[in-house]
TrEMBL record:
The keyword Membrane applies. It comes from the Bacteria. It comes from Tumebacillus permanentifrigoris. This is ABC transporter permease. Keywords: Membrane, Transmembrane, Transmembrane helix. The chain crosses the membrane at residues 7-29.
Length: 184
């Protein structure tokens, strides 16, 4: 009976060990799922929070002074561009990167079409299109924000003017740009 009792105790020990290992594995798997869900929720909350600073510009009419404020605030943001169209500059001027904002139905709408670094305009693959582009005139240009405040400049933004503001999002709903079109 001593051997039988030892065998039962050993079997019970093995059974308890297997049960504890199984419980540990189940807890680990459920913790992984909870972590994944938490990461997805955190990412969603982070996207919402980053979008809140742009909601004031989402299909609204704003003043020229708000356009100037937006230029000052977002001009240096990476992978972000602001296009301002005034009554004097109907082609518009891009500040920061140049975003594909031509056709909202396009699969590339909202993507960075050209990166502006220093005085160069480059395609996203790094190919240089224009060198010495600071102050370059036309729609594919980087302009100094200070020119938007100079009354003598065709890029002048009248602070009393009214502008229709539009937020440009890519296919992943990430905001890459703002469009300001003067309405008066």
């Amino acid at each position: 009976m001593g051997n039988a009792q030892k065998a039962l105790v050993m079997a019970a020990g093995i059974f308890l060990a297997i049960a504890l290992i199984t419980i540990g594995v189940v807890m680990f798997i459920s913790a992984q799922e909870a972590t994944k869900t938490a990461q997805e929720n955190f990412s969603s909350i982070q996207n919402e929070l980053s979008s809140t600073s742009f909601t004031v510009y989402d299909n609204t009419i704003i003043s020229g002074s708000q356009v100037i404020n937006a230029l000052n605030k977002f001009n240096k943001t990476k992978e972000f561009g602001i296009r301002v169209v005034t009554n004097e500059d109907l082609a518009g001027t891009w500040y920061g990167d140049i975003i594909d904002a031509q056709n909202p139905a396009s699969t590339t709408y909202g993507d960075v079409a050209y990166r502006v670094t220093g005085s160069e305009i480059r395609q996203p693959d790094g190919t240089t299109l224009v060198s010495g582009a600071t102050g370059y005139s036309g729609t594919v240009a980087q302009s100094l924000v200070s020119q938007a405040s100079l009354e003598s400049s065709n890029r002048y933004v009248n602070t009393a003017g009214k502008f229709h503001a539009t937020v440009v999002r890519d296919s992943s709903n990430v905001i890459h740009g703002l469009l300001f079109d003067q309405t008066n």
